[in-house]
Amino acid sequence: MSILAVDILKRLLAHESLAQSLQFAQVQRFLDFTRRVWPEILDRGAAPLALPLHIVAFLSAVLGLSPELVKLSWVAFKDIAEAYQKEPIELDLDDAFRLHGNDHHVGAEAINPPISHCHRPECCKQLLTDPSVVEARLYTLTRGVLPVYSRSLYCRSSCNLNL
């Protein structure tokens, strides 16, 4: 089952409190998280009418929603969640950068200098130029090793050379 935005919109509009409270990203995260905890949700092999309370508490915490909105989201999106969990899990964003980022010279994070103007008084706060880009790796505890491109900028100012 391909999930279309119009399907989600119809369900949001059918439940006014969801339409007034949920952002699209929260709906997507709701579906992503229910997919990950699907075995915890199942009741004797079938999707239950109501989510288990520990799942409601978990989704409430990770989505920043009240338990009531999580329960109502389950009512609205249960069948979409059920169909969604049967589809193959797509690459996470970081994995996509790991696979394709270097081929296209796009990093998972931007490593840029903290300043864009020269801080030396004799340079009249000239804009730093002449970018130099180096392929690098960013080591993180939570996301693993990520491909990045580190950019350096240089001052090529001729301001106040007569000092």
Protein architecture, described:
It comes from Favolaschia claudopus. It holds the Pfam family CxC5. The protein has 163 residues and is an alpha+beta fold. 45% of the residues lie in helices and 15% in strands. The protein has seven helices and three strands, in the order αααααααβββ.
Mean pLDDT rating: 87
Residues in β-strands, percent? 15-25%
Report strand order across the widest sheet.
Answer: 1-3-2
Helix content: 40-55%
Q: Based on helices, strands and strand pairing, what is the structural class?
A: alpha+beta
Quaternary state of the chains: single chain
The value of Rg in angstroms is: 24 Å
Concise synopsis of the structure shown:
13% of the residues are buried. The protein has helices at 5-14, 16-21, 24-36, 38-41, 53-63, 67-84, 93-104, and strands spanning 110-111, 129-140, 144-154. It is of the alpha+beta class.
Write the SSE topology.
Layout: H1 5-14, H2 16-21, H3 24-36, H4 38-41, H5 53-63, H6 67-84, H7 93-104, E1 110-111, E2 129-140, E3 144-154
Helix pairs in contact: 3-6, 5-6
List keywords for this structure.
CxC5 like cysteine cluster associated with KDZ domain-containing protein, single chain, CxC5, three-stranded mixed sheet, alpha+beta, 163 residues, 45% helix, 15% strand
